[in-house]
What we know:
Elements: H1 6-33, H2 38-58, E1 67-68, E2 82-84, E3 94-100, E4 109-114, E5 120-126, H3 128-131, E6 141-147, E7 153-158, E8 162-166, E9 172-177, E10 180-186, E11 191-196, E12 199-204, E13 210-215, H4 216-221, H5 226-232, E14 236-238, E15 246-248, E16 255-260, H6 263-266, E17 277-281, E18 286-290, E19 297-302, E20 309-313, E21 319-323, E22 332-336, E23 343-348, E24 362-365, E25 371-375, E26 380-384, E27 390-395, E28 403-404, E29 406-412, H7 425-436
Antiparallel strand pairs: 1-28, 2-27, 3-4, 3-29, 4-5, 6-7, 7-8, 8-9, 10-11, 11-12, 12-13, 14-15, 16-17, 17-18, 18-19, 20-21, 21-22, 22-23, 24-25, 25-26, 26-27
Amino acid sequence: MNKPSLSDHLAPVVFAVSIGVLGIVYGTVASWWGWFPAPQLGLAHRTYVDLKENWRNDIGLEPTRHLVPPGGTDTPDPARGFTAHQPQKAQGGFTLVSGLNTDPEGTFHTVRLYDSDGKEVHRWPIPYAELDGDIRPQNTMLHGMEVFEDGSIAVTFDTGQVLTRLDSCGEPMWSNIDWYHHTLTRDGQGNMVTWRGETIVWVNEDTGEEVRSLDLRGAIAGGNDRAQQGYLDLRTVALDKTNGEIRYGHDPFHPNDAEPLTEDLAEAFPMFETGDVMISLREINLVAVVDPETGRMKWWQHGPWLKQHDPDFQPDGTITVYDNNPGTKVSRIMRIDPETREVGIDFTGSEEVPFYSWRRGKHQVLPNGNLLLTEAERGRLLEVDPAGQLVWERHMVWDAASNVIVTEARNIPEDFFADGVPSCATGASDSAEAASG
């Protein structure tokens, strides 16, 4: 028998090393170009990390997906809650607050109503589990909110699939199941405007029926205006072959607001018409006003805000924008004149008055000139005066170290409700108990 040569011994080693080198090269190239199995491995890793961090949430033990470090301080005060800094400067009226219920014994989501002294006077339980049997409430985020003069409310959910109107006790008046998200705004003509996926929809307030829709990719990005289409198609990606399919990447626009121009504000915006819709596309830092029939953009502005939310028409003919400004630790409220395109800053976070939410967030310019701000990712609400000084602040406290994410605070006048402060047997009992605690 012939004795194996050195080359015979080395051949398996060389083969194994070659396979290893090829594997490293392929893995590197696959990660660059997104070839198999890089996307699958990335998804598996993200899923593992997510489950590791949030398994307590997903089995209903602790809402870890909704807990955040408190805003306004580096060292949380266990006694934090509502603080009136300049009560004489407060707007007055009522403040609605939507988000996670800080009472673990109640429904997972709630909308609360506070009076001008900061006392809770009513609470709407949001019974998501009764409305949707497919998704657990703890894996959804109450986001869009509207309130009605009869004491009812309407809400939508991110990562959920419910748009519903509830009476003052939280009993459903009607419900729709679909991918509604982010925002709800009354148009003054009997409808609410919201997003369903990437489609703007008008929903009848009384029945929940969809009465009109406008598709972002079809009518706005892919409509008859080629210049507009080219502008929005900046978010398309091409395959590596020149004859490959042109396609959109994942969530290229991330629409997060659709606000109709109401009749009472239309006179301040002569370049627009009643019913035109202002949209916010977060991923391309775009705020635009579109024709609701054709999708034609009548006006648009790309920045200087970054990953913005909640653009609002204002009575003086300007538009204010919640500039999340992620990565800077400082969010801002910006104001732009759509005719001159002059941009200013109404308020910015500072060392004296910290304000930062890297995502989500709402704002409201109040009649007295103050700003009502939702610092969503720090679980804090604040009203500031025109000089940027705190008027009051409220932490939505979960425990000594954490707040809960809060998605919106909204001021309404004292005489908003037709029959006074909403109430029902359960709601009155809950509110009284909360007030006494």
